[in-house]
Amino acid sequence: MTDFYQNGIVTTLHQLSRRPLAELEAELISFARMRPMALVLPSLYSELEGPALNKIVEQLAQVPYLNEVVVGLDRADGDQYRHAIRFFSRLPQRTRVLWHDGPRLQEFAAELAAEELAPREPGKGRNVWYCLGYILGSGRAESVALHDCDIVTYDREMLARLIYPVANPHFNYQFCKGYYARVADGKLNGRVSRLLVTPLLRALKKVLGNLDYLEYLDSYRYPLAGEFSFRREVINDIRIPSDWGLEIGVLSEMKRNFSTNRLCQVDIADNYDHKHQDLSLGDDQDGLSKMSIDIIKSIFRKLATQGVVLTPETFRTIKATYYRVGLDFIESYRNDAMMNGLQLDVHKEEQAVEMFAENILKAGNVYFDNSMETPFIPSWNRVSAAFPTLLKRFYAAVGADMKEYGT
């Protein structure tokens, strides 16, 4: 149970009481009359074979207020897509599975690529972007939630708390970010948030000063959480990265498009765990190493759009400052873990900080070497301007896939 303290410039909605789930869901049912709700599930096919998604579907089958579930399916062939339709058919809500690797949706990808409007690389960002396009084309939801498909501790209360702030017509929030404690199996998890993002933001403040953007990002208790919710109108003008910078990219876009009093974060779980990425110390194209580079690049690019001049000397200074701050954080986490009877491997924590420090320079080099790169997927507003009928055709193509392979 958290306290009521408000940190930073984004409203925090705490879990101050054990409010019965039935009460939350009863309110959401009433909200749904004015603001129909949808859920987006970006998924790899392999997650259908894992332990988490089956439980998630079982929990979602009991949710009474959702109008639509949109599943983005990656890395699936025809037989696997057919299996995915059967897998999600247990859901009583209207459910659509987007087969991103199928011929119909690949035709749309080629059409967009011809105008340089398609996502440039596969990944969660691309998956989410197409799902958001489908939400626009469907027009069945005013409030939308999104969460990952690998949450092994999933409970439908997570979804209720996540979507409540943007579904409640008495609130003015356009966007809500979920947060939680990353503690499982007697250990502190969440290394990239704990050991990279927060120390890096503190280091950037030391080097660059207290920029409003840095203060904003530092207000989020778990900036890399894959769970967030939003009003449908948010979708039209959002420009997101297609790589591991998705979560930071989404937060950056919310800051660009809305006043901070329209944004919030909410405590959605006491216990949260999902699959863990390898640290990948020797491979910066995989695991947490690649993830960290993508995240750092996302932050650097956003700072550049704010008018911050970044040089090789700046990156070296940021690296040195980050390293010192990161090591100090390890001591804080060690003491916190010890007081709570949790395990923390200081050696592995320092290995992570050392790798992240090196990756600050690698991300800086990528930033300079690819100065002409367009890092964001175009907004759906731009796509619709270039192809006025595309959303309707895209919506119809998904329906055609479901009809052909669902029989």
TrEMBL record:
InterPro entries (UniProt xref): Nucleotide-diphossugar_trans (IPR029044)
UniProt key word Transferase: yes
GO MF entries: transferase activity
Keyword vocabulary terms for this entry: Transferase
Superkingdom in the source lineage: Bacteria
Annotated Gene3D superfamilies: Spore Coat Polysaccharide Biosynthesis Protein SpsA, Chain A
Protein name: Glycosyl transferase
Species of the source: Stutzerimonas tarimensis
Lineage of producing organism: Bacteria, Pseudomonadati, Pseudomonadota, Gammaproteobacteria, Pseudomonadales
